[in-house]
Amino acid sequence: MLRCGYILILFFLVGCSSKVSKKNLEFLNGYWEITAVEFSNGQKKTYNVNPSVDYIKLDKLKGFKKKVQPKFDGSYVISNDTEFFTIFEKDGSLIISFENDLSSWEEQIITLEEDFFSIVNQDNITYSYKRYEPINIQN
């Protein structure tokens, strides 16, 4: 009976895990707005309005991320800070590896869809993003 329980638990865990496909990496390109941060202690912070969004550009498995501030006229104020990254596969997961002169860190892609993605970092903090929709003000 105990053996059946272990098999059912294993089946449940494997069936519920979602693997991010490399073919979906193209979805990372574009503007992304953070929606929530879940900390390792379970606390969650949600964001309804963001003064800045992330612009991600990926070519093959290398890319960069920049903070930009949308303006009402549809243009952006672009920061001077650029975070370069590479993506690699580790134990069946896709990992984003960032490195600059001051530090290096990794983030695992948890989900990746056309309009939503989430990552978890080495401190077990999960970040959720939705595709940024520009504010469209017509005169």
Task: Note down, in words, how this protein is organized.
- It is a single chain.
- The protein is mostly beta strands.
- It is built from one helix and nine strands.
- An eight-stranded antiparallel β-barrel has the order 1-3-4-5-6-7-8-9.
Question: Which short descriptors sum up this protein?
Answer:
globular, disordered N terminus, 9 strands, mainly beta, 139 residues
Topology:
Elements: H1 2-16, E1 30-38, E2 44-46, E3 53-59, E4 62-70, E5 76-90, E6 93-99, E7 104-112, E8 116-121, E9 126-131
Quick one: how many beta strands? 9
Which strand order spans the largest sheet, edge to edge or round the barrel? 1-3-4-5-6-7-8-9
Q: Can you write the helix and strand succession as a string?
A: HEEEEEEEEE
What is the typical, i.e. mean, pLDDT? Answer: 86
The portion of residues assigned to helices is 10-25%
Summarize the structure.
With 139 residues, the protein is mainly beta. It has one helix spanning 2-16; strands spanning 30-38, 44-46, 53-59, 62-70, 76-90, 93-99, 104-112, 116-121, 126-131.
